[in-house]
Amino acid sequence: MQKTRLKRKSECEWHIEPFGDMRVPAVIFASGDLIEDMDDKVYEQVTNVAKLPGIQKASYAMPDAHWGYGFPIGGVAAFDPDEGGVISAGGVGFDISCGVRTLHTGLSREDVEAVKEPLAEALFRSIPAGVGSRGQIHLNPKEMDDMLEGGAQWAVSRGYGNKNDLIYIEEKGCMSGADPSAVSPQAKKRQKDEMGTLGSGNHYLEIQEVVEVYHTDTADAFGIAPGDIVLSIHCGSRGLGHQIGTEFLRSMVLAAPGYGLRLPDRELACAPINSEIGQQYLGAMRSAMNCAMANRQIITHLTREAFSRILPRAELDLLYDVSHNTCKLEEHDIDGVIKSVFVHRKGATRSFGPGHPDIPEAYRSAGQPVLIGGTMGTASYILCGTDETMGHAFGSAVHGAGRRMSRRKATKQWKGRSVVDDLHKRGIIIRSPSLRGVAEEAPGAYKEVSEVVNAADEAGLARKVARVEPIICVKG
């Protein structure tokens, strides 16, 4: 990474003071080694975001940051609509509301080991995965609009799960302000057969063991302890979210000159929040958020059905569900003034501290669970927000390990069959419809997740609570 303007403020915080057209500083949270490994595009993109109208405080990049479309993946920025603030489709990403959901199982490692192969097969057969995967749910136009407006609440009303699940989902499972009429017919067409599917890429369903606890009090509040088996689901809004992102990026680029916007990068296509296109995008994006939450809710239902056939005594109660590709209207302290701002988190997870009203009551004294996905061969983490995190990057933290090489490069270095066999020798079962997809997601294609999480902890973005390691992974 270019370092000429990077100034180290602490062990894991680096600043780039405004230059050129930058309106605010750029801040990168990372260890020295992670900074060394970041490509120059992160530096370029985080400073370009700092040039957008109405941006508040700073443009931020998380320790797992890498090149993305317009915004870096791992980018956070907030905009004030009263100061000409913009909303950017590139600042949310194509997989709108992609997120992680973690469930308790009430099982031990011994319980799972006894039925590991049949359990892996049952999950693989129950949850469609891979490029273009289709589910057993087929939505008609009214059902589609109801789902886009109701999210996980709609799914529960249809019998996919129970009302108690909704307590532990961000926004209680339904993002208000969704406008299904702002979603194109093509986006709806792409989604009508994709509910209850994982998709491809880095999406997964994983059975994991809690192998280490760092903060016992918080772990107790979350109901986890060493030796516990949990289940995590990582997926988003599938074809609908991708179509919304594609369409609005195109229309925002075309509309930008009419709003007097000079874009530092065409990929930073945006529109004033209060403009017609800005409001349309908000309505469509919120619909996609509801789609993603409904999708994870349905997958949870399918997972419970699979477990009921193999391990019927499993509990499968929801620990938490949080997204990491969103833009939300939130109240934050901006230089001593409480403002309502639109916070873009692209590959970044909300990390609210203790006492925040948006945290489930059971966790409110501990802080919000922050669910960090790793790779199928390493580990994932459960963190939590703290009082300190609210002062950093609008209460945001990392979302995963972060790629260190492209998928194309990964397939040149690894073969899917070899990855599956190597992990099997380590006691990790992989099920996937695509060996090429496995190669693209090889553990070595990602940054070391423990280094990313340690940097987030050191920087005060979130506190480490527990480390979990994979036993079974169903990959898209």
Architecture per CATH nomenclature, i.e. the level-2 architecture: Alpha-Beta Complex
**CATH superfamily, called what?**
tRNA-splicing ligase RtcB
Query: What is the domain total for the residues?
Result: 1
Q: In angstroms, what is the radius of gyration?
A: 21 Å
Question: Distance between termini?
Answer: 32 Å
Low confidence ranges: none
Largest sheet: 8 strands, mixed
Q: Helical content, roughly?
A: 25-40%
Strand tally: 19
- Average pLDDT, rounded to a whole number, is 95
Shape: globular
Total of helices: 14
Q: Return the CATH topology.
A: tRNA-splicing ligase RtcB
* CATH structural class: Alpha Beta
Q: What oligomeric assembly is this protein in?
A: single chain
Strand content: 15-25%
Main structural class: alpha+beta
SSE blueprint and pairings:
Blueprint: E1 7-10, E2 13-16, E3 26-29, H1 32-37, H2 40-49, E4 59-66, E5 73-79, E6 86-88, E7 99-104, H3 109-113, H4 116-126, H5 141-157, H6 163-167, H7 185-191, E8 204-213, H8 216-222, E9 229-235, H9 238-255, E10 270-272, H10 276-310, E11 318-323, E12 325-334, E13 337-346, E14 349-350, E15 369-372, E16 380-384, E17 396-397, H11 407-413, H12 416-425, E18 429-431, H13 435-440, H14 449-459, E19 463-475
Parallel strand pairs: 3-4, 18-19
Antiparallel strand pairs: 1-2, 2-3, 4-5, 5-13, 6-10, 7-9, 7-11, 8-9, 8-19, 12-13, 14-17, 15-16, 16-19
Provide a descriptive summary of the structure in words.
The chain has 476 residues and is α+β, with helices and mostly antiparallel strands. The chain has one domain: Alpha-Beta Complex (tRNA-splicing ligase RtcB). Helix content is 33%, strand content 23%. Strands 7, 8, 9, 11, 15, 16, 18 and 19 form an eight-stranded mixed β-sheet that branches. It has a seven-stranded mixed β-sheet with strand order 1-2-3-4-5-13-12, with helices on both faces. The longest helix has 35 residues.
